[in-house]
Amino acid sequence: MSRRLKLAVQNATAATALPTRAQLKAWAEAALQPGVKQAELTLRLVDAPEGQTLNREYRGKDYATNVLTFTFDDLPDIPGLPLMGDLVLCAPVVEQEAQEQDKPVLAHYCHLVVHGVLHLQGYDHQQEDEAQAMEALEAQIVTALGYDDPYRSDKES
Q: Keywords in UniProt for this one (predicted)?
């Protein structure tokens, strides 16, 4: 694996069904697109109160959500500057969603890390065409990492 990703992991949760640092790094690195030469990311695993506070303060939504992505959009456009940002994963929400969606918790963590890292690179899902492109890329990356297509239930219905 290349050394193009510097990853800091912060564990601020009481949850025990967590991916390892090596898994988190592999998933994040797999989501980096070819044009990204270097990336510096912080991935923070939190409990519901912190997840809810962050979602309320930064998105105006008063509930804990699965993943929050914080980009450093205010950095100058300097050639060679690495991709930088933070991902916050709310462990209880991830675990609950995995159970509700009948998928392994690690598969759901993988999908959400990939999803968040793609957001850091400018991918979005606000418009239908953007959502389709982002979901297709997520599915490609997640399945290449050995997990089922995270949108499989959407495609079966």
A: Cytoplasm, Endonuclease, Hydrolase, Metal-binding, Nuclease, Ribosome biogenesis, rRNA processing, Zinc
